[in-house]
Amino acid sequence: MRSPQSLRNGGVGGGGTPSPHARIPTPHHHFHSTVSVQKLKRFNSLILVFRLSTFCFSLASAVFMITNSRGSGSDSPRWYDFDAFRYVFAANAIVAVYSLFEMIASVWEISREVTLFPEILQVWFDFGHDQAFAYLLLSADSAGTALAITLKGTDTCKVTSAFCVQSTISIALGFAGFLFLGLSSLLSGFRVVCFVINGSRFHF
Amino acid sequence: MRSPQSLRNGGVGGGGTPSPHARIPTPHHHFHSTVSVQKLKRFNSLILVFRLSTFCFSLASAVFMITNSRGSGSDSPRWYDFDAFRYVFAANAIVAVYSLFEMIASVWEISREVTLFPEILQVWFDFGHDQAFAYLLLSADSAGTALAITLKGTDTCKVTSAFCVQSTISIALGFAGFLFLGLSSLLSGFRVVCFVINGSRFHF
């Protein structure tokens, strides 16, 4: 395994040009590096917490939606009869799978001190997907909300109110997932900026 | 008015610490600065085009929605009877006003070579609002789409189909506005990164 010092100077995945001073290792440099590793661990732990929250909420949302079928008659409401509810389920399931993957990548990075992909790919991959999936999840939950509000006044909700309550809970859980995904996106955006400035994850 | 040279070295709004070399002006520095000013003008013109497109599409969307009332009877559909359509109108109106303001700021910057607000405030203001309003607009348009799809099967669309067609057009225009707002957001994000790295808008 590479030492933190070699990682700090852009040893993995490139992007940073080593400065002339890098050839002279000083005690100050080493101290700085150790502090940076500690800070990075704390930062990564925070990201891991946000990923875990996103995963829990979006998985719960998807499960609540997929189990939302009342009765077996032809006139009883089922979640897959509504476009917006299918969209809510699909978006939450995608985000849950993505969060699971990111959690594995995050645990890998915390335990081994190297990123799963090359560093430059990893920071841009995280940020890009966080942004795209945040838009996807918000769009799905908004569509679900609009449908839920429309359904409220109709016979569907008067006859089987449990169906409407369960959809509403599912959508609310989806919004909570979006909140944590947005926070992850902020942190991964910050990581991209740090990487662009220093050519390494090891400076804050 | 300050010269581009003084702006380049973080003269407005700070954020950048002047390097020791900044004290020695060279012909090369001046040449570089002129090229940067040219590049910045082209970059700002591109942002202006995106802002103008956002403004046109979101204004058109808001106008299409607000004029969407059929008949004067109590059973004829009106846009303000539907929560999601009111949300679409509000979001598009807000984005139209914001884009108009940003267009003025952009024209100001191109013509006078200084930003309307202090530089650091301006770049973060632009980026923050672009991101927030992009989420808002996508959310509103998704909600509108979900309602429009639900309405399609009901009597409202069978009796007065013009109402549904006009809502759909308004929502589609809103999505086009979102697309250009997203592009503006990318460029203003790039400007923030440039500003954080160099402490000035004048480096690409």
TrEMBL record, chains A, B:
Membrane topology: Multi-pass membrane protein
Location of the region described as Disordered in the Swiss-Prot/TrEMBL record: 1-25
TM helices/strands, residue ranges: 48-67, 87-111, 132-151, 171-197
Location within or outside the cell: Cell membrane
Domain annotation Casparian strip membrane protein: ranges: 44-180
One GO cellular component term noted in the UniProt record for this chain: plasma membrane
Keywords tagged on the record: Cell membrane, Membrane, Transmembrane, Transmembrane helix
Family annotation (Pfam families): CASP_dom
Oligomer and partners: Homodimer and heterodimers.
Family of this protein: Belongs to the Casparian strip membrane proteins (CASP) family.
Protein name per the record: CASP-like protein
Organism this protein belongs to: Cucumis sativus (Cucumber)
